[in-house]
Specification:
Layout (H helix, E strand, L loop, with lengths): L12 H9 L8 H9 L4 E5 L5 H10 L3 E5 L3 H8 L11 H8 L3 E4 L10 E4 L14 H11 L7 E4 L7 H11 L10 E4 L18 E5 L2 H12 L5 E4 L2 H32 L3 H8 L23 H11 L5 H29 L7 E5 L14 H11 L3 E5 L25 H5 L3 E4 L8 H7 L3 E3 L3 H4 L7 E3 L1
Helix pairs in contact: 2-8, 6-7, 9-11, 9-12, 12-13
The protein binds nicotinamide-adenine-dinucleotide.
The site of nicotinamide-adenine-dinucleotide has 27 residues, from α6.
């Protein structure tokens, strides 16, 4: 395949040669810029200091660069200035130490971009209420960058998005004042692959895919990332790099949907899907384990695939796998609530109306405090819609935060998990398998446990009152 933008096979030697061969003399000396990255003399700005941006800042500081962190959220900036972080698994020490020695500052002032060589953008890419890509954060940030753009700037988008965003949406905004990508400034896309809370894979342990708008952009971005990741993976264009990220997340969404479907089928057959997966994953090739659950959560898997389905419409091509996976995964909270109601009815002769349900876990996955898109909200909505009264326990989320779709749950406090309290509920529904929960004690005290994560079995907490769903 012929790359759509400059991409030179053997890396990095041929790319360096390509930079020297550029025919029209560029006003920007890309070789001098390259040296700044190689010598770690470059200043890096990171815009969007959230779950992705903050660990990224830590990684870049760790490589010896000076970093400016920008966010529109004054509270985040103030917290960093005061030596605190707001993400549980990201410690404050590297930031406060770097502030003290002048290598880091956090600010809401975008004129700080003038001091930077590279600008990395990690702002949200959610869906609109009509479940279409919402690029408003990327566009607003790009306009803010455009207002400060100077010769030699390297602008890299890290937010997850559909192919065509970097070159089709950002580039025209950045070029509107006459500067040209590849000549005056450099533009690239490099998707973030952060797995928040996963101690095995910090930002610095994950290879980085990079697509540049031209050879120089690719070379500069590669020099920057090479300083703090174990491997860079240059691809032929930003479009390709955007597609790589979506492919990774579509792959997960489809495979999770598959095991969710198998769970329902095997449940009817009296077969434990988790036992099946544990045995299947002993095959040393051709199989990769994915696990069923109460539905999808987080900022990525429930959202990203729809960036691709939306873009596919432009090409009048179907994305049936993605749509079907979305439908299957979306149905899971309904399946869990149906199963819970059946068990309650079967065991006590009672319906959901008036039943007291304790939902264990509000975070969308274990050991994080991130509740975005968590299926626990949907479970609560469905249960209360059928007349149940729900409480929540989450060791990492003391108070239910406000969400657009479930604002009425905001402010509810996480209840204590002592034996007397647990025994007072008709059903305990495990939605998140946090390690901090004592599952043996929970099973010992509860009347009925509906376990959507196989958490009890994994903890050796067995009992006739535990039902996997
Ligand atoms: N969270 C993950 O696990 C993960 C993993 C890989 C990729 N991503 C992608 O990374 C991107 C960021 O996700 P996140 O989880 O870090 O989001 P986040 O909400 O945790 O952080 C985004 C930050 O951007 C700030 N922001 C919003 N608009 C801004 C603007 N105009 N200027 C400056 N700052 C602005 C917000 O205040 C917030 O602090 C998304 O595209 C997401 O899909 C997320």
């Amino acid at each position: 395949m012929i790359p759509s933008v400059g991409c030179y096979g053997s890396w990095p030697l041929r790319l360096t040669l390509a930079m020297q061969k550029t025919s029209a003399p560029a006003p920007v000396d890309a070789s001098a810029l390259l040296a700044r990255y190689q010598q770690r003399a470059a200043v890096v700005a990171v815009i969007g200091l959230g779950y992705v941006g903050l660990p990224l800042v830590k990684a870049i500081l760790g490589a010896g660069f000076k970093v400016v962190g920008l966010d529109v959220d004054r509270e985040k900036v103030a917290a960093l200035e005061q030596g605190r972080t707001y993400i549980r698994h990201v410690p404050a020490e590297p930031f406060s130490a770097a502030i003290a020695n002048g290598r880091f500052r956090a600010t809401t002032d975008f004129t700080a971009l003038k001091d930077a060589d590279a600008i990395l953008i990690c702002v949200p890419t959610p869906l609109t209420s009509h479940r279409e890509p919402d690029l408003s954060y990327v566009e607003a940030t790009t306009r803010a960058v455009a207002a400060q753009l100077k010769a030699g700037h390297l602008v890299i988008l890290e937010s997850t998005t559909y192919p065509g965003t970097t070159c089709g949406v950002m580039k025209p905004i950045l070029e509107a004042r006459g500067m040209r990508s590849g000549r005056d400034f450099f533009l690239a896309y490099s998707p973030e692959r952060e797995d928040p809370g996963n101690p095995a894979f910090a930002t610095t342990a994950i290879p980085k895919v990079i697509g540049g708008d031209g050879a120089e952009a690719l070379a500069l971005a590669n020099a920057l990332y090479s300083a703090f990741v174990p491997q860079t993976v240059p691809v032929s264009s930003p479009d390709t790099a955007e597609a790589v990220k979506l492919t990774e997340n579509v792959f997960r969404a489809v495979n999770i949907a598959l095991v969710n479907e198998l769970k329902i089928l095997y449940e009817a057959m009296g077969i434990d899907v988790w036992e099946v997966i544990d045995a299947a994953k002993t095959k040393p090739f051709g199989y990769m384990p994915f696990y069923p659950g109460p539905g999808l959560g987080g900022h990525c898997i429930p959202i990203d695939p729809f960036y691709l389905t939306w873009k596919a419409r432009e090409y009048e091509l179907p994305t049936r796998f993605i749509e079907l996976a979305g439908e299957t995964n979306t149905q899971m909270p309904r399946h869990v609530v149906g199963r819970l109601a059946d068990e309650l009815n079967h065991r006590t002769g009672r319906g959901l109306k008036g039943a007291r349900v304790l939902i264990v876990g509000l975070a969308y996955k274990k050991n994080v405090d991130d509740t975005r898109e968590s299926p626990s909200f949907k479970l609560m909505e469905l249960l209360e819609g059928r007349g149940a009264a729900c409480d929540v326990h989450d060791p990492l989320v003391p108070v239910v935060p406000r969400t657009r779709e479930h604002a009425s749950f905001a402010g509810r406090k996480s209840v204590a998990l002592d034996a007397a309290a647990v025994a007072s509920y008709d059903v305990v529904l495990i939605a998140t398998d946090h390690d901090a929960i004592d599952y043996k004690a929970l099973v010992g005290a509860a009347k009925l446990v509906i376990d959507t994560r196989n958490a009890c079995a994994r903890a050796g907490a067995v009992g006739g009152n535990v039902v996997k769903a």
